[in-house]
Amino acid sequence: MEDFLAANRANWDDRATAHATRTGLGYGVQRYLEDPGCLSDVVRFDRERLGDIRGLRTVHLQCHIGTDTLSLARLGARVTGLDFSPVALAEARALVAESGDAVVFVESDLYSALSVLEPASFDLVYTGIGALCWLPSIRRWADVVAGLLAPGGRLFLREGHPVLWTLDERIADDLHPRFPYFERAEPLQWDSDSSYVATDRPMTATTTYEWNHGLGEIVTALLEAGLTLTALVEHDSVPWEALPGQMTERAGGEFALDARAGVLPLSYTIQAVKPAAAS
């Protein structure tokens, strides 16, 4: 398992510098410096569902270079970002140093979060899109989330739908489910020198390992961790071109199926709360 983690960390170290470029490629970070009110497309998509988060003690798990993290801060949350890539965190700290956003970043893999962050101290645990597929055990993830939340605190998760992760994006003539829907011990191994956004160079750490988790497995893991599910919304779009040649771009950076529009969900938003302590 440590070999899988090391390979994935090397890949995310590599992606971080490409994603944080100021050239207009990658994550387009220059817009956050030019416009202090700019929010990431991912956070803006769920802004109504997030509600008023002003003053909430918030942790953004698997925060990468911090664009969603600083967006939460711009909505008034008191935010800590956590990630396992030291390069990504260096880029995130550089970004908020330039933008002036008040965000703290902490280095840790997800499963060790409770050893570097104070347990039961967060009003909001936030996880953005494209995070869970890097984790081998969804039950361990749910236990970490529950451990971080204060009584009455809330999980907010938007993710790519596990149905989407079963599809082979390399075949553009139709939808082709080829990969496991349910969690398996052994990961899928990938080798690619490209990223999911345009970059000014190919990746050099190209091998990655990923795991899928069925929607039922995710919900069950949260329930077994003691959380109460309060919302589950499936969406017909994702914030990147997940299936090249089969999608159309919408306003706000979302992509939906073209010829097969509406035949399957592409992402989802889950909210769950930790029961308040008994009086």
Automatic annotation (TrEMBL):
Organism superkingdom: Bacteria
The keyword Transferase appears for this protein: yes
CDD domains linked to this entry: AdoMet_MTases (cd02440)
Keyword field contains Methyltransferase: yes
Domain Methyltransferase type stretches: 60-155
GO-annotated biological processes: methylation
Keywords: Methyltransferase, Transferase
GO molecular function: methyltransferase activity
Designated name of the protein: Class I SAM-dependent methyltransferase
Source species: Cryobacterium zhongshanensis
Upper classification of the organism: Bacteria, Bacillati, Actinomycetota, Actinomycetes, Micrococcales
